[in-house]
Design a protein that fits this description.
The chain contains two helices and four strands; from the N terminus they run ββββαα. The chain is of the alpha+beta class and 121 residues long. The strands form two sheets. It has a two-stranded antiparallel sheet. The chain has a two-stranded antiparallel ribbon with strand order 3-4. It comes from Eumeta variegata (Bagworm moth).
Length: 121
């Protein structure tokens, strides 16, 4: 069974993470992220619109009923599921951030000279 649920409209996310420039064995400067430390805040825009299909209770498709309820009560829905939803998204973002900064030399995304900020690994 395939379910598709999406959340659309304005979502503003601000996240802060700690990193230190380090020089690797290859001589490249990378940003070493402090894993596990990741603060974020978020806010939803003026209105959140939910879309979903293929939501079944038994053999009955209740997608339209569920979507109608969520869209009429979007503030309640966001208050109930917003934090767990965003926690799941931020876990993916943090994992990507760690892998990206650990593997891609800083010269590809930072134009400033980071040499003076280097710390030994």
């Amino acid at each position: 069974m395939h379910r598709h649920i999406s959340l659309t409209e304005n979502v503003r996310i601000k996240f802060d993470f700690n990193f230190t420039p380090v020089k690797g064995d290859d001589g490249e400067i990378r940003l070493k992220c402090k894993k596990g430390h990741f603060d974020y805040t978020y806010e939803f825009g003026d209105r959140v619109t939910f879309k979903a299909n293929n939501i079944f209770v038994g053999k009955q498709d209740v997608s339209e009923l569920v979507v109608g309820f969520l869209n009429q009560n979007w503030k309640l829905a966001v208050n109930l599921v917003g934090k767990p939803f965003m926690n799941a998204i931020m876990a993916v973002v943090q994992d990507f951030e760690y892998k990206f900064f650990t593997n891609v030399p800083a010269k590809y995304f930072v134009s400033d000279d980071l040499e003076k900020y280097i710390h030994d690994e």
